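Entry 14. Structure prediction run on the chain below.
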Amino acid sequence: MKRIGIISDTHGTFDDKLREFLRDVDEIWHAGDIGSLALADEIAAFKPLRAVSGNIDGGLTRRVYPDFAAFRCEEVEVLMTHIGGYPRHYDPRAVARIQAVRPKLFIAGHSHILKVMYDPVYQLLAVNPGAAGEFGFHRVRTAVRLTVDGADMRDMRSANGPAAKTAHKQHELPKATFCRLFSAISAQPPHPHPHPHPHPHPHPHPHPASGTLPRQSPKQILKF
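Output returned:
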């Protein structure tokens, strides 16, 4: 069993509010726009880190963290990228990776908008944790926590707070909603002919995928 924190778009911010929300997780997964390699190292010193680069991340960060990370957590296949879109509006590169990896959990960032959707075509849960940092058009900072236990994903929680420095609030996805969501995931038969409708989104720095990321040292669905 692993407790996971999912964050994105920190843009150089990893403050006490985020640390408090992520205090009890076993790993942090960062969906890009970290802000700097120094900040990635700071997060990795706090908790083991898996991360991908985002469109604002510089060359040093891109040398360490790829555009895509595909890995297995317990019995759940995970695919993470920064500019990935969401069901029926995936980035074309994300579609190719989804078809190759067949993840049960797809994580993307970039939009600064918290979004959680079940994709019946690819039988996956798509999670965008929104923006955990203070820079951007968003007015609410968001982050997500969940527990992965074997093939089960549960105990999903979020916290949210304005970009201003105020106390955050925590939320739990209603259990009935969560159970319906994952019952649908397990009950759906494979779709024989997926027909997504990707929207192209240019990205100037392609990089190969990676599973376990090199700079690990001593982040369900909702808001921070």
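Residues 164-224 have pLDDT under 50 and may be disordered.
Filed with the rest of this week's runs.
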